[in-house]
Amino acid sequence: MSAEAANPGATSRRRGRTRLDLRRIGRVALLGPTSRDRLPDAIGHVADAHRAHHPDADLSILHRAYVLAESSHRGQMRKSGEPYITHPLAVTLILAELGAETTTLTAALLHDTVEDTDVTLDQVRSEFGEEVCFLVDGVTKLEKVDYGAAAEPETFRKMLVATGNDVRVMSIKLADRLHNMRTLTVMRPEKQARIARVTRDVLIPLAERLGVQALKTELEDLVFAILHPEEYERTRALIAADAGTGDPLNVIAEEVRRVLRDAGLSAEVLVRQRHFVSVHRVRLKRGELRGTDFGRLLVLVAEDADCYGVLGELHTCFTPVVSEFKDFIAAPKFNLYQSLHTAVVSPDGEVAEILIRTHQMHKVAEAGVVALGNPYAPTDDAETADDGVRADPTRPGWLSRLLEWQQSTPDPDTFWTSLRADLAEDREITVFRPGGGTLGLPAGASCVDAAYAQYGEAAHRCIGARVNGRLATLSTVLSDGDTVQPLLALDIGSGPLPEWLDHARTPAARIAITGWLSAHPQTEVPAPAGATGRPPGPRPQESADGRAPGVGTLVRRIAGNAVVDLPDATVRLAGCCTPVPPDAVTGFAVRGGAVTVHREECPAVGRMRARGREPVSVRWLNTGGCRVTLVAESFGRPRLLADLTEAIATAGAAVVSATVEPPSEQRVRHTYTLRLPDAAQLPALMRAMRAVPGVYDVSRAQRPATA
C-alpha cells in the first residue's frame, strides 16, 4: 500500500499539491536558475509560503542558496527518478509552511550540499554566515546516522547532542524525514518497514517533544500505513464511510458560533478532522465510533483571557463533561503546548471535544519550536554560557534535560536504553515545587524522579519527600498537580540504594543512580529515609509572650547564666526557641515580674515588637557549658536510637534525659535534654544528628524532655 495515501482530506490534498509542485520543480530545476534579478520559478512557492508568515523577509539569501544548491546537485537524481534538487526544495517548503525563519530555510536548501556535493562548510560560512554554517554542519552530522541496530546508541547520541545545541537542526531533520517518508514507496518493503520503525520509535517522539504536531501527525499516518496496513485500511474505510453522512460537528460548531456571538466574544470556530492514527486510537478506546469522534472543534481567540471567557460560555450554555477538562494554558505542556481542553454535550446528546486557544498558541501548537524563529537573534536576549555554548531561550525543558543525561552517561547503550524508555512515554504530568516553579515528569514518575529532576546528583542524599505537605515514601507515584518537596540529608557521603531503580522512571534518575552504584560497588548504604511515613502534625502556634496553648512552653527555672537589666526580675528561657549561649538574645517582661528570654530570630520577638512591647536587654554571664533540649524527627529503622546516641556522644554532649514517642507510620520523634561543655558546640552537634541516616530534621525543643 502506498505510504503517500496515508492522510485523507486536507492532508492528502496538501501532499497531492506538493507532488504536483515537485514534478513542476523537477522540470524547472533541469533548466537551471533564472536571471539574477528575480527569484527562480522553482522556489516561487517556497517564497510565497515564507512571505505568508514573514511579510518583510529578505528573499535574496534564499535566491543565492537555491542557486548554489541547484548547481551543486545538478545531474544527481533521486530513486524516484526526479532531480535531486526536488528534495531540498520539498524540505524547505515544509518548513516554510510551518513558519520557519529565513536562516532555517536557507540551511534547509543547503542541508545536503556538504554531504553529497563538492560544497564545503567553509564555502557555506563565507557565503551565508556562521548561523547557516552551524545548521548545515549539524544536519550533515545527522545525515551520517546509520539506522542499523548496532550503530543506533552512539549515532543517536550524536544526533541528539546536535539537536540540543540548536533545535533548528532537528527541525530540518524532521522535515527531511517527512519528505523521505512521503516518497518511501520506491524502497524495498523490508527497508520501508525498517525506516518506518525507526521513525516510530525515535523521530515521532522527538517531534512530539519539540511540539511540531503538524509533522508528527503526518509521520504517524505514514508509519501506520506501512507497519499496520490492515488496521490502516479499516480506519480509512471508516473515515470514508463517515464522509458520506451528515457531520454533527458542523451543527454543533454553528451553535457554538451563535453562543459566542450572543456573548459578544470574537472567536473563530473550526472543525478539525482527526488524522488516521487519532481515529484509530479513539476506536480502540471506545469500541464503536460516534459521529463526533472523527474530529474536534477548535476555537481561536485573540487573548489568553478570552480563552477562559469562551470556556465559561460553553460550560454555561452546554452540559460540560467535567472529566475531559484540562488547562494547558495555566500549566503548559513540556513541549510548549498551550490550550484549554473540554468536551460538551449538545442538546441532541452529541458529545463534542473542543480545543480553545489563541492564534499564537495555535501557531506554536502546530509548529512547536519551528514557530519560535531564530532563538539566537539579538531581540531574543540570547545569552552565551560561561563554557561558550549558546543558551537557547526557546529550548523545551525536556531537551535541556536530554543534554544533561548524555553528558553524565559515558556508556552509549545505557543512554540509549534510558532514552528509548523516555520516548516511549506518551503522557507527561506537571508537579509543583513549594518555592514556586514546576517540574515536567512522565506519567508514573515517583518522588525519586522528582528529586533528581530538581537537584541532580545532590538527590543521592534524598531521605524522603513531602507530597502535598505530607511525608511520603520515595516510591510514591506522583499525580498531575501534586506539590512535591524532596528532603535531603546533610551527609554528603550518602548515596542511593539499588532498589531506587525500581521506582525511577526518568532517564535522569536512572542514569544518575546507575552511575553512583557503579562507582561504589562495595559501599553499603544504610536504609534511607525514603521509607514511608507521615509528617508530624502542626505544632501549636505561640502566643505573643511565648506561650503555646495547652503546652506551657516556658521553662520554669531561674537562668543564673542570663542577666537582665531589671532588678529582682526572675529570668526564664523561652521554650519556643530554647536560647543558649552564645545566642543573640533579648527579653520581654511578662506578668509576675518575670522576664522571658528569646533568641533574636525567634518569631515571637517580631510579633511582640510589632505590638509595641519594649524589649529588655539580656546578656550571658559566660558562654561555657549549657543545657539544651533538642528534637530529632526521623523515619523508623533498626539501630536508629543507637546511632543517634553515638552521634551525640561523639560530639561531646551528655544525655540528661531522653524520650522516644511511639512510631506513627514509621515516623519517630526523639526528644533529648543534653548538657554541652561549651555552648559553641551546639551547631556542630545538630549537624551531626542530622547526618544520621533516617533523620530528616533536628530542632530546638518547645519543652524539656522528661526522663
Automatic annotation (TrEMBL):
Protein's UniProt name: Kinase
Similarity comment: family membership: Belongs to the RelA/SpoT family.
Domain TGS, residue spans: 427-488
Domain ACT: 629-703
Domain HD: 84-181
PANTHER family assigned to the protein according to its UniProt record, in alphabetical order: GTP PYROPHOSPHOKINASE (PTHR21262:SF31), GUANOSINE-3',5'-BIS DIPHOSPHATE 3'-PYROPHOSPHOHYDROLASE (PTHR21262)
GO molecular function: kinase activity
Region described as Disordered: 522-547
Gene3D superfamilies for the chain: 3.10.20.30, 3.30.70.260, Beta Polymerase, domain 2, Hypothetical protein af1432
Naturally occurring in which organism (per UniProt): Streptomyces chryseus
Keywords: Kinase, Transferase
